[in-house]
């Protein structure tokens, strides 16, 4: 969420992105699983993931395989 930047837009909505992080913290895959209805917001959510990567490595006691997460990105007009 810290890497998220609200696009200069009057649109609001929530995009849900599913992404997989490799054991070394690399962003292995990403996809929009629920669109906000606005491509600019969906693109901003994907861009936030790209900016946040790489993530911290996954400790072996947490997982020995890549981990998949779903993250909502809520965009509001301020």
Description:
This protein is an alpha+beta fold. A three-stranded antiparallel sheet has the order 2-1-3, covered by helices on one side. A hairpin with a 5-residue loop joins strand 1 and strand 2. The protein is elongated and about 45 Å long. The protein starts with 12 loop residues before the first strand and ends with a strand.
Keywords:
3 strands; about 80 residues; alpha+beta
Query: What is the total tally of β strands?
Result: 3
- Residue-averaged pLDDT: 91
Radius of gyration: 13 Å
Biggest beta sheet summary: 3 strands, antiparallel
Distance between the termini: 16 Å
Biggest β-sheet: strands ordered side by side in the sheet: 2-1-3
Structural class: alpha+beta
- The portion of residues assigned to helices is 10-25%
